[in-house]
Amino acid sequence: MKLYYKPGACSLSPHIVANEHGLKAELIKVDLKDHVTEQGNNLYKVNPHG
């Protein structure tokens, strides 16, 4: 499972739930200003709505 997040946003909630249930999740930081992931991928390819 991949969890896309922005520090300080409510994306922390699914991360907490995943940890509590022992689910492994790949955390991917996003830059909402430039609409890219930390790897430089276009965020609109993951979510067309941004």
From TrEMBL:
Superkingdom as given in the UniProt entry: Bacteria
InterPro entries, A to Z: Thioredoxin-like_sf
Gene Ontology molecular functions: transferase activity
SUPFAM superfamilies in the cross-refs: Thioredoxin-like
UniProt keyword terms in alphabetical order: Transferase
Name of the featured protein: Glutathione S-transferase
Source organism of the structure: Pseudomonas asturiensis
